[in-house]
Amino acid sequence: MKARIFVTLKNGVLDPQGKAIGHALNGLGFEKVGEVRQGKVIDMELAENDEESARASLKQMCERLLANTVIEKYEIELKA
Amino acid sequence: MKSAVIVFPASNCDRDAAMAIEQLTGEKPHMAWHRDNALPDVDLIVLPGGFAYGDYLRCGAMAAQSPIMREVKKKAEDGTAVLGICNGFQVLTEAGLLPGALMRNANLKFVCRPVGLEVEETQSVFTRGYGKGEHVVFPVAHGDGNYFADDETLDRLEGEGRIAFRYVPGENPNGSAHNIAGVLNEKRNVLGLMPHPERVCDPLLGGTDGMALFKSLIEALS
Questions:
Q1: What is the ipTM of this complex?
Q2: Does domain B3-221 correspond to CATH entry 3.40.50.880?
């Protein structure tokens, strides 16, 4: 099973990198670009066939290491 | 005072910390490698500055999971004094020993210069040698020192007198909430701070404002 995990800053947490990216895009002439938020994508192969238990263990991975839940949130995507 | 300094791969202030302690106590600290899983009986554990594990994933995230940190957590819970400087502060928040998180500096720049600080809280083994409100100058050298915590946590830190050091207004180098430079845990035996007291413990290095921190520890723990 393949997993893709998105780790992004929580709403309300200031994202200076996202802001700088937005400014740079405006500077390149992309005037329609508004607020930009950036984050990480983690791709993982998982020796697991059961979706429910894959989700449960990925949730633990996110809580314990992949995301810092003080400032970040995560989303999990699974593909067979 | 018996002490240990933890060395992670890419720690780079471990020897500065050891030197400051040795000059003041006459005793060499035990240098513990990140893979060690036990520490000798010590009064103080220092997590030094640097870029442990290359700051992979997030600053301090990998270091917080290293074998030695299980022992550090156990000792901290038993009341041993733990001092995290710069990257060490990041490791302590990632390990859950201190609240909050250290984010990318608000101006996105690595800041390396002396900054003015106010000693906000003197009721701790780390700061009892300073006067309340005393102004000191410690160098900072970090890219991720922007302290963040939710409003409830910040209120609690303020209310419980757990903000040990604050940047002097106008000198905040990283955008940290409430100008926070260093915080204590609930039991007040764990301190994390972004500025480097160990770099101002010898007149040859341009200042001695950090000496009182180590002297406080020696007085309290010897």
A1: 0.88
A2: yes
